[in-house]
Structures are given as structure tokens and as C-alpha cells.
């Protein structure tokens, strides 16, 4: 996914003089050719994430369309107030593209992990959030974001589904049954495997904000399971609002709050959080009874 | 230092309208003379050009205590003087910290300290990238505000990239631990000058010239509360 981001953003820099890219060392090497061609629009501020976000705000105030990029824990957790004030409060927009959400940086430890990025952005107004499940879903997200000035978050991950589902901003039903299981981004393949043989609808989205409330109401029966690749329950308020007035039971699955003080691979952490196929199946079967 | 309270006649009454305080001397407003010199003699911006892409940019980072800023903007016609009579009211566009969305001529909404310089660096970069080489960017900070670490990210990066931006630090010695060795020493790679923040002619002389790298002006005024 990171490669798709680099290729598409490099193209955007070539095609549209409004595009700017602000980096804080992460991925700077990969953008060296673009920086060579557009030295005044490809800006590496060094290891200064607060400045990266503030600079994006300033660029937007002059009419440019800034993309900024780092690890999620630095671009969102660390620079949260800059996103809140130097973008939101200024009524300015930018495209924040991160890697290292949740436990992708498993071997780096908790300092390089952000399970709470989407929850943090949920406290702010007007963010569209993309969580691609496949690298071929990434270019459209970045290109669409170039055509307006709103605030956009693109969460690139190392875990990918076997095939892309483009145009999955709204919920796409991929399998039909009784209860509804919603998979966000890279949670789709494990959900499909986990629900094999179960009487469930599996719906997919790679754009959890704004949440497709209408689609959820249309697909939901009495039982809904939401599976997200970040903090469990991040979408609880959105789901509750969408299903207001409808009798229902909901199970929210995602990354737990307890810090897993182990290294290993993302697969190890997915297992630890019950987000691999066997873990998901156990939770879903238990919930559906 | 003696406060020279010689002000353009209209500013005193305007300040009184904001603060409701007849006794408070205009010199209590540390930023007043710098702001007046900027808007009266330096900045290429007027109520008619608030949206012109090549207008000079002034960013009040020290959004805290904006009475002098509001008085100067009203005196220069950016908004009606009657707005000054209802500071912080429900129907008032003027709050205790300025909001760019609500006040014509205000470039950034600030109040939380340590945001204006980073935004200003972005503005200056955006102007440079779009070829507005005549357009200047000014940011005004307070000496206590310099305590915020975010400023130091902007200071170092502006120096490294020779960004033509002007920062003005109003020094009324309000930083809790002070800046031993001087504020200018915290701006390596910048052109620096330290001037009397009440001497308008001197302020004009340091604000007017363009620099091909970042430029710091420390405007020294009376100690806060003195």
C-alpha cells in the first residue's frame, strides 16, 4: 500500500501544481525523485511532526492541497492538537496518509503503534477516513482527495485482502445471510474465513467515515457485528446512531486497549487481539449463539 | 524604559471601547506599537485586499489578549468599530482569542500558544511555491509563548531552508524561566535585531527591509505588570 501511495502521490505532484507533500523524514527517500522535480512542493521538515501538520495548515491557507505523511502515532497521536487547530479550527483541509496504524510496526513496540488514530480523529469535525483493504484501493482515494479541500485521512496497512473492492465507500454486501457482519478494510479476509458456513451477511467498507448509516440500516437485521482494524468500539457511536429506533444487538470487535508487550509479527498481534480468523469465529459464534 | 504613550488619536478610545477600562493606559498593551507600525506603514493589506492571493500575511500567534489587534484592525477599517463594544458576547465576532473564520483580515485563529509560527512557515512556503515572491509573511509571538516546543521546530526549519519569514517576539519578560543569553540566541541562522518595542520609527526601520533568510525582531517593552 505504501508503494501505491508513493506512486500515486508522485503522479499527483506532476499533474497538479496545487499538490504539496509534507514529510517528517519517514518515506523521504522514496519521494526523492519527486522532490528533485518539485523542490518547492515536496517538503521534508525533518523529525518535526507538529511542524509537519502546521505547515500543511499554512499551505492550505494559501490555496494549496497538502498531503502529509508519517507513522500514525506521530502524525495523529503526537500532532493531534495541530490537526485540531491548524487544520480544523482554521477551516483548512489536508490529506493525512499514515502507515503504522494499530500493530503494523509489531517489532518496533508500542511507541510506533497507534490503535487509537481513528478514535482520535472521531473527536474532530469533518474528517473523511479511508481504511483500504488492498493496495489497488489506494489510488482512487488519493486522487479523489485532490479534487476538494476537505480533511481526509488515509490509513495504509501491511495487512491486505486477497482482492480489491474499489468503490467500497458505501457498504458492499459480499455474502448474504441473517445476521450482519461488517468488515472494515483489511478485516475482510479474516471475516470471510471466520464466517464460512455461518448464516450471515458479510458487508465491506473501506471508508468508515462518514459511516454509511443508510447502508447499515438497509442491511442490518437484529444482530450486527462490526469488525475494525483499530480500537474495538471506535464505531460504536456511529452504529448506534445509524440503528436508532431499531431493536438490535451489537458486537464490536477490534484492537484491545491492553498493551501487548510482545514483538513478533502483525499476525501474532492479530491473534493476541482475537482478530485472526479463529479468534473472530469464536467471538462471532459466541455472540450469535 | 519609559513607555511613550503617544498614539494615533483613535487607538486610545478604541482600546477603551474593548476593555471598558478608562484608566488602563494604552501602554499596557505590549503589542500595540508593533501592530500599528505593521498595519500603518509596512503590510500591503487593506480591507479591500483581504482575499487577494498576493497580499502580505500577518499572523498573530500570540492570540492571547488581542485587544490591541482588534483596535488596530478597526482603526484600519477591517470591521466596524461598534464590534469592539461586545468583546466575547454571544453575538460578537470578537472573542478573547481571534477566529479567522469570523473576522475579516484575521489570517489565523489562535489562542493556544505555539501554533502561529508553524502555520506561518507553511504560509510562506505556499506563497513561495506559487511564485508570490513579493508577498511577505510576518508572525508575532510573545516571549512566554516561546516556551512552547513547537516554536523551536519552526525556528530550526526556517533557518535550514532560508525561508524569508519575519518573526516578531514581543519581550515583556513574561516567560517564567526567562531566556538567559537573550531571545535572539534561540534563533541561530536568522538575521536578528533587538529594538525598543515602543519606538515606532525604529520598528519601521527594522520591519521594512526584505531579507533573503528568516528575520527575527525582538521588540522589547516594559516588564509585564510593571
From TrEMBL, chain A:
Transmembrane segments: none annotated. Pfam families: Transket_pyr. It comes from Paractinoplanes aksuensis. It comes from the Bacteria. SMART domains: Transket_pyr (SM00861). SUPFAM superfamilies: Thiamin diphosphate-binding fold (THDP-binding) (SSF52518), TK C-terminal domain-like (SSF52922). InterPro entries: PDH/Transketolase (IPR051157), THDP-binding (IPR029061), Transketo_C/PFOR_II (IPR009014), Transketolase-like_Pyr-bd (IPR005475). This is Transketolase. Residues 1-164 form the Transketolase-like pyrimidine-binding domain. Coiled coil: none annotated.
UniProtKB/TrEMBL annotation, chain B:
PANTHER family: TRANSKETOLASE, TRANSKETOLASE N-TERMINAL SECTION-RELATED. Residues 24-177 form the Transketolase N-terminal domain. Coiled coil: none annotated. It comes from the Bacteria. Pfam families: Transketolase_N. InterPro entries: THDP-binding, Transketolase_N. This is Transketolase. The lineage of its organism: Bacteria, Bacillati, Actinomycetota, Actinomycetes, Micromonosporales.
